[in-house]
């Protein structure tokens, strides 16, 4: 009797539960079928690994870098100009064809915004950043920020960059014929340059250690370890999860402190205004008709300051270190570049650096090839703002469709760059314009939303390379990794074990 009662109770619970679960499965299957047919109905090739479960798990778990994830997608459709894929039921369009890429670049009115999550109520700082903001807010911010990189501002920045490069060289002299980690050296240099020029801080970052509070803060603006990759992936592909999980892309305590210091400076004195880039940011954000506590939009200032860190410290330090790495593995190129440097610059005329580096053809070739191998951004994404028809195929791209382009994959495609893994500055004997016009070379992105700090990065790294190669020779050693292993948990390329090279004073 007791057993029958138990069975009756179980059936009363389990049967409705089974029916409810079955109904959910049926609804989910219809949901999948509906979205899985989206690209099929439009005769667009699709990524067969539905939901990309294996690859997305690898990204989340830190086993696969975000850029490598996109390269795998790109290579899975070698003959298709584009293909569709789905993440959490959302159709995305992955563009492979250079002609289509150029068309997207040219039609800014249709592809004005990046397809990142951007909502002020959820993340008031990121939504105001020029990197994430949508029109018309993006256009207003970009116009204000463009004044940071005028010719006059660049000219004023060069002596500051040079002074830190000279300090770096003085520090490196003690390691003659020793093995150093050039990744640590590069991060220290860029910490000192960025904190001085943009934030007005004397970071006092030593060139042989990571023990520096400013450097640590800059490295962790976007969180630590796996959090960076996870947050960036969710902001890119799963905006609904951002709302649910309340994920913040920027860990902004350090930048907020600096911004508040600038705000106090404006309230307390006029003497320092305009002496730092962040002062100029504040000046461009000031409301001259308002004399209240809301004198500044603090979130706007923090958002733009964080963007500057994104566009400078993280990629630039890797850019400089990887340049030394490739030149150490290719001694003939290092010597050829050094000969050009000595032909243009001596200790007596080194103050003319900016004009000299503009005329150094081989330096420009080397830097262009480094950026091909290691672009500062792995991808370009756009959101279709209104229905657009691709002239090449007649495909109608509907409003709201996210567009994905893998910069790293195109730069490594042998159809465009034969023997793509080889470091060969000769590819750019005639400059980069031909490849840019072909739609196969864009290390700083493209169009009106190209990297804001691209020109500054180029100038700073060229100056650093010229200065260090005038004084030192770099060679591989038994601790040099071949190939370099990168940290899969972070957004940008970052050597996980550093870059060990032998340095010799000339």
Query: What percentage of the residues does DSSP assign to strands (E)?
Result: 5-15%
| Rg over C-alpha atoms, rounded to the nearest angstrom | 25 Å
By CATH, the superfamily of the largest domain comes out as Cytochrome P450
Shape designation = globular
Structurally, the number of domains stands at 2
Strand order across the largest sheet: 1-2-7-4
- Largest β-sheet summary: 4 strands, mixed
CATH level 1 class label of the largest domain? Mainly Alpha
Low-confidence stretches: 288-293
Helix content: 40-55%
Q: Kindly report how far apart the N and C termini lie.
A: 96 Å
Q: Give the overall average pLDDT.
A: 81
Elements, N to C (H/E): HHHEEHHHEHHHHHHHHHHHEEEEHHHEE
Cofactor: heme
Transmembrane segments: 6-32
Protein name: Cytochrome P450
GO molecular function: heme binding; iron ion binding; monooxygenase activity; oxidoreductase activity, acting on paired donors, with incorporation or reduction of molecular oxygen
């Amino acid at each position: 009797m007791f057993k029958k009662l138990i069975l009756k109770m179980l059936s009363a619970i389990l049967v409705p539960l089974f029916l409810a679960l079955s109904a959910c499965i049926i609804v989910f299957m219809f949901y999948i079928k509906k979205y899985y047919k989206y690209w099929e109905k439009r005769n667009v090739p699709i990524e067969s690994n539905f939901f990309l479960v294996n690859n997305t798990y690898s990204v989340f778990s830190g086993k696969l870098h975000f850029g490598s994830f996109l390269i795998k997608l790109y290579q899975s459709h070698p003959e298709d100009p584009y293909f569709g894929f789905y993440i959490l039921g959302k159709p995305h369009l992955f563009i492979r064809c250079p002609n289509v890429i150029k068309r997207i670049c040219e039609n800014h009115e249709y592809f004005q915004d990046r397809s990142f999550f951007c909502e002020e109520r959820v993340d008031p700082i990121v939504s105001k950043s020029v990197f994430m903001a949508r029109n018309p807010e993006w256009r207003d911010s970009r116009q204000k920020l463009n004044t940071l990189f005028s010719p006059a501002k660049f000219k004023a920045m060069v002596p500051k960059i040079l002074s830190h490069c000279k300090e770096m060289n003085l520090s490196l002299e003690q390691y003659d014929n020793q093995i150093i980690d050039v990744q640590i050296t590069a991060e220290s240099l860029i910490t000192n340059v960025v904190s001085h020029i943009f934030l007005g801080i004397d970071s006092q970052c030593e060139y042989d250690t990571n023990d520096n509070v400013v450097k640590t803060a800059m490295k962790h603006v976007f969180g630590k370890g796996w959090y960076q990759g996870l947050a960036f992936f969710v902001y890119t592909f799963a905006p609904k999860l951002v709302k649910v999980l309340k994920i913040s892309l920027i860990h902004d305590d350090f930048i907020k402190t600096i911004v508040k210091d600038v705000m106090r400076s404006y309230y307390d004195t006029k003497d320092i205004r305009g002496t730092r880039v962040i002062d100029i940011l504040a000046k461009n954000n000031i409301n001259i008709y308002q004399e209240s506590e809301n004198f500044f939009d603090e979130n706007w200032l923090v958002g733009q300051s964080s963007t500057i860190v994104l566009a400078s410290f993280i990629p630039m330090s890797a850019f400089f270190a990887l340049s030394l790495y490739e030149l150490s593995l290719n001694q003939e190129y290092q010597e050829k570049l050094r000969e050009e440097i000595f032909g243009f610059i001596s200790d007596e005329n080194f103050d003319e650096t900016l004009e000299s580096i503009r005329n150094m053809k081989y330096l420009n070739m080397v830097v262009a090839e480094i950026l091909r191998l290691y672009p500062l951004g792995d991808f370009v994404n756009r959101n279709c703002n209104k229905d657009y028809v691709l002239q090449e195929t007649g495909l109608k791209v509907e409003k709201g469709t996210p567009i994905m382009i893998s910069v790293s994959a195109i730069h490594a495609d042998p159809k465009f760059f034969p023997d793509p893994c080889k470091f060969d500055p000769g590819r750019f004997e005639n400059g980069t314009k031909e490849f840019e016009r072909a739609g196969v070379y864009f290390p700083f992105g493209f169009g009106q939303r190209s990297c804001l700090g691209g020109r500054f990065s180029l100038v700073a790294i060229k100056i650093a390379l010229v200065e260090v190669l005038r004084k030192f020779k770099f060679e591989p050693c038994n601790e040099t990794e071949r190939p370099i292993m990168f940290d899969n948990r972070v957004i940008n390329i970052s050597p996980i074990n550093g870059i060990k090279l032998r340095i010799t004073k000339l």
